[in-house]
Here is the input.
Amino acid sequence: MDISIFQVLGPVMIGPSSSHTAGAARLARICAMIFGEPFWKVTFGLHGSFAHTYKGHGTDTALLAGVLGIREDDERLPQAREIAQARGLEYRFYLKELDNVHENSVMITFYGCNGNQCRVVGSSIGGGEIEICRVNSFETQFRAQAPALMISHYDHKGVISKISGILSDADVNIAMMKLHRRSRGDVAFCLIETDGQVPPSVAENIQKLEDVLNVRNIEIAQ
Here is the structure.
Protein backbone atom coordinates (compact mmCIF):
# COMPACT_ATOMS: atom_id res chain seq x y z
CA MET A 1 0.00 0.00 0.00
CA ASP A 2 1.34 3.44 -0.93
CA ILE A 3 1.29 5.92 1.97
CA SER A 4 2.20 9.55 1.53
CA ILE A 5 4.44 11.24 4.09
CA PHE A 6 1.63 13.82 4.39
CA GLN A 7 -0.67 11.07 5.68
CA VAL A 8 1.86 10.23 8.39
CA LEU A 9 3.07 13.65 9.52
CA GLY A 10 0.39 15.89 8.08
CA PRO A 11 0.95 19.13 6.14
CA VAL A 12 2.39 22.44 7.31
CA MET A 13 -0.75 24.22 8.44
CA ILE A 14 -2.58 26.69 10.64
CA GLY A 15 -5.24 24.97 12.74
CA PRO A 16 -5.91 21.85 14.82
CA SER A 17 -6.69 19.18 12.20
CA SER A 18 -5.11 18.10 8.94
CA SER A 19 -8.45 16.82 7.66
CA HIS A 20 -10.90 19.35 9.08
CA THR A 21 -8.72 22.45 8.83
CA ALA A 22 -5.77 22.12 6.42
CA GLY A 23 -7.59 19.77 4.08
CA ALA A 24 -10.70 21.93 4.16
CA ALA A 25 -8.74 25.07 3.27
CA ARG A 26 -6.91 23.35 0.42
CA LEU A 27 -10.13 21.79 -0.87
CA ALA A 28 -11.95 25.13 -0.96
CA ARG A 29 -8.97 26.84 -2.62
CA ILE A 30 -8.93 24.26 -5.43
CA CYS A 31 -12.72 24.56 -5.81
CA ALA A 32 -12.35 28.33 -6.29
CA MET A 33 -9.69 27.67 -8.94
CA ILE A 34 -12.11 25.35 -10.71
CA PHE A 35 -14.75 28.09 -10.80
CA GLY A 36 -12.08 30.50 -11.97
CA GLU A 37 -14.16 33.69 -11.89
CA PRO A 38 -14.80 36.52 -9.43
CA PHE A 39 -17.76 35.70 -7.19
CA TRP A 40 -19.92 37.74 -4.84
CA LYS A 41 -21.46 34.88 -2.84
CA VAL A 42 -20.55 31.34 -1.84
CA THR A 43 -22.42 28.65 0.11
CA PHE A 44 -21.05 25.56 1.85
CA GLY A 45 -23.19 22.44 2.22
CA LEU A 46 -21.47 20.45 4.98
CA HIS A 47 -21.76 16.65 4.99
CA GLY A 48 -20.97 13.95 7.56
CA SER A 49 -18.13 14.73 9.96
CA PHE A 50 -17.78 18.22 8.50
CA ALA A 51 -21.38 18.90 9.47
CA HIS A 52 -20.98 17.53 13.01
CA THR A 53 -17.65 19.02 14.07
CA TYR A 54 -17.03 22.02 11.84
CA LYS A 55 -17.23 24.64 14.59
CA GLY A 56 -14.88 22.87 16.97
CA HIS A 57 -12.24 22.18 14.33
CA GLY A 58 -12.57 25.51 12.56
CA THR A 59 -13.66 23.84 9.33
CA ASP A 60 -15.98 26.73 8.49
CA THR A 61 -13.17 29.27 8.87
CA ALA A 62 -10.81 27.07 6.84
CA LEU A 63 -13.32 26.62 4.00
CA LEU A 64 -13.97 30.34 3.86
CA ALA A 65 -10.23 31.05 3.86
CA GLY A 66 -9.74 28.60 1.01
CA VAL A 67 -12.25 30.21 -1.34
CA LEU A 68 -10.54 33.53 -0.59
CA GLY A 69 -7.29 32.02 -1.88
CA ILE A 70 -5.66 31.75 1.54
CA ARG A 71 -3.39 28.73 1.83
CA GLU A 72 -3.56 26.27 4.70
CA ASP A 73 -0.21 27.48 6.10
CA ASP A 74 -1.08 31.19 5.86
CA GLU A 75 -1.22 33.03 9.20
CA ARG A 76 -4.23 34.99 7.91
CA LEU A 77 -6.42 31.87 7.94
CA PRO A 78 -8.04 32.57 11.35
CA GLN A 79 -9.07 36.03 10.08
CA ALA A 80 -11.02 34.63 7.11
CA ARG A 81 -14.37 36.05 8.25
CA GLU A 82 -12.95 39.54 8.66
CA ILE A 83 -11.26 39.32 5.24
CA ALA A 84 -14.49 38.12 3.61
CA GLN A 85 -16.40 41.00 5.17
CA ALA A 86 -13.82 43.50 3.98
CA ARG A 87 -14.13 42.13 0.44
CA GLY A 88 -17.92 42.22 0.55
CA LEU A 89 -18.25 38.44 0.10
CA GLU A 90 -21.54 36.91 1.19
CA TYR A 91 -21.37 33.34 2.53
CA ARG A 92 -23.54 30.74 4.25
CA PHE A 93 -22.97 27.37 5.88
CA TYR A 94 -25.68 24.72 6.04
CA LEU A 95 -26.02 20.96 6.56
CA LYS A 96 -26.25 18.79 3.45
CA GLU A 97 -26.59 15.03 2.93
CA LEU A 98 -24.45 13.96 -0.03
CA ASP A 99 -24.41 10.57 -1.73
CA ASN A 100 -21.40 8.28 -2.11
CA VAL A 101 -18.79 10.62 -0.66
CA HIS A 102 -16.23 10.63 2.17
CA GLU A 103 -17.40 11.73 5.63
CA ASN A 104 -15.37 14.94 5.35
CA SER A 105 -17.17 16.39 2.35
CA VAL A 106 -18.69 19.67 1.27
CA MET A 107 -20.70 21.04 -1.64
CA ILE A 108 -19.48 24.54 -2.49
CA THR A 109 -21.66 26.71 -4.71
CA PHE A 110 -20.14 29.81 -6.28
CA TYR A 111 -22.27 32.73 -7.47
CA GLY A 112 -20.25 34.62 -10.05
CA CYS A 113 -20.24 38.37 -10.54
CA ASN A 114 -21.16 37.78 -14.21
CA GLY A 115 -24.18 35.65 -13.30
CA ASN A 116 -22.52 32.24 -13.70
CA GLN A 117 -22.85 29.55 -11.06
CA CYS A 118 -20.75 26.49 -10.30
CA ARG A 119 -21.29 23.68 -7.82
CA VAL A 120 -18.30 21.60 -6.72
CA VAL A 121 -18.39 18.60 -4.38
CA GLY A 122 -15.14 17.61 -2.74
CA SER A 123 -13.69 15.69 0.18
CA SER A 124 -10.81 16.03 2.62
CA ILE A 125 -9.54 12.46 2.73
CA GLY A 126 -6.79 12.69 5.36
CA GLY A 127 -3.37 14.20 5.92
CA GLY A 128 -4.33 17.36 4.09
CA GLU A 129 -5.07 15.40 0.90
CA ILE A 130 -8.27 16.10 -1.05
CA GLU A 131 -10.45 14.76 -3.84
CA ILE A 132 -12.81 16.64 -6.13
CA CYS A 133 -15.82 14.37 -6.65
CA ARG A 134 -18.21 16.36 -8.83
CA VAL A 135 -18.17 19.55 -10.88
CA ASN A 136 -21.76 20.60 -11.54
CA SER A 137 -23.44 17.44 -12.86
CA PHE A 138 -20.23 15.64 -13.86
CA GLU A 139 -18.52 12.98 -11.75
CA THR A 140 -14.75 13.23 -11.45
CA GLN A 141 -11.85 11.97 -9.33
CA PHE A 142 -9.29 14.73 -9.11
CA ARG A 143 -6.78 14.63 -6.24
CA ALA A 144 -5.08 17.93 -7.18
CA GLN A 145 -1.67 16.29 -7.11
CA ALA A 146 -0.74 17.40 -10.63
CA PRO A 147 -1.56 20.38 -12.86
CA ALA A 148 -4.76 19.87 -14.79
CA LEU A 149 -7.17 21.24 -17.36
CA MET A 150 -10.91 20.97 -16.81
CA ILE A 151 -12.71 21.45 -20.11
CA SER A 152 -16.45 21.63 -20.82
CA HIS A 153 -17.24 21.06 -24.48
CA TYR A 154 -19.78 19.64 -26.89
CA ASP A 155 -19.32 15.93 -27.51
CA HIS A 156 -18.59 16.33 -31.21
CA LYS A 157 -16.24 14.29 -33.34
CA GLY A 158 -12.65 15.51 -33.37
CA VAL A 159 -12.78 17.83 -30.32
CA ILE A 160 -10.53 15.67 -28.12
CA SER A 161 -8.11 15.21 -31.02
CA LYS A 162 -7.85 18.99 -31.49
CA ILE A 163 -7.28 19.52 -27.74
CA SER A 164 -4.59 16.83 -27.68
CA GLY A 165 -2.95 18.40 -30.73
CA ILE A 166 -2.72 21.82 -29.08
CA LEU A 167 -1.11 20.27 -26.00
CA SER A 168 1.31 18.24 -28.13
CA ASP A 169 2.32 21.28 -30.18
CA ALA A 170 3.11 23.10 -26.92
CA ASP A 171 5.17 20.12 -25.66
CA VAL A 172 2.73 19.51 -22.79
CA ASN A 173 2.61 15.81 -21.91
CA ILE A 174 -0.74 14.30 -20.90
CA ALA A 175 -0.42 12.14 -17.78
CA MET A 176 -4.09 11.18 -17.54
CA MET A 177 -7.31 11.98 -19.40
CA LYS A 178 -10.90 11.20 -18.38
CA LEU A 179 -13.99 12.08 -20.37
CA HIS A 180 -17.54 12.20 -19.02
CA ARG A 181 -20.61 12.94 -21.10
CA ARG A 182 -24.33 13.14 -20.43
CA SER A 183 -25.24 11.54 -23.73
CA ARG A 184 -23.83 11.30 -27.23
CA GLY A 185 -23.52 14.74 -28.79
CA ASP A 186 -24.42 16.55 -25.55
CA VAL A 187 -22.16 18.58 -23.27
CA ALA A 188 -19.12 16.64 -22.05
CA PHE A 189 -16.51 17.22 -19.34
CA CYS A 190 -12.85 16.39 -19.89
CA LEU A 191 -10.25 16.23 -17.11
CA ILE A 192 -6.63 16.24 -18.29
CA GLU A 193 -3.77 15.93 -15.81
CA THR A 194 -0.37 16.94 -17.17
CA ASP A 195 3.28 16.37 -16.28
CA GLY A 196 3.91 20.10 -15.96
CA GLN A 197 2.16 23.43 -15.73
CA VAL A 198 0.08 24.35 -18.77
CA PRO A 199 1.05 27.79 -20.15
CA PRO A 200 -1.90 30.22 -20.12
CA SER A 201 -1.57 30.66 -23.89
CA VAL A 202 -2.26 26.95 -24.38
CA ALA A 203 -5.46 27.10 -22.34
CA GLU A 204 -6.46 30.19 -24.33
CA ASN A 205 -5.95 28.34 -27.62
CA ILE A 206 -8.10 25.46 -26.41
CA GLN A 207 -10.79 27.94 -25.36
CA LYS A 208 -10.86 29.27 -28.94
CA LEU A 209 -11.93 25.90 -30.36
CA GLU A 210 -15.45 26.04 -31.78
CA ASP A 211 -16.96 23.30 -29.61
CA VAL A 212 -15.22 24.24 -26.35
CA LEU A 213 -17.43 25.99 -23.79
CA ASN A 214 -15.09 26.51 -20.87
CA VAL A 215 -11.46 25.83 -19.90
CA ARG A 216 -10.04 25.96 -16.40
CA ASN A 217 -6.28 25.75 -15.94
CA ILE A 218 -5.62 24.33 -12.46
CA GLU A 219 -2.06 25.18 -11.48
CA ILE A 220 -0.72 22.82 -8.81
CA ALA A 221 2.76 23.39 -7.36
CA GLN A 222 4.97 20.33 -7.78
About this structure: Confidence is low (pLDDT under 50) at residues 1-17. The longest strand covers residues 117-126.
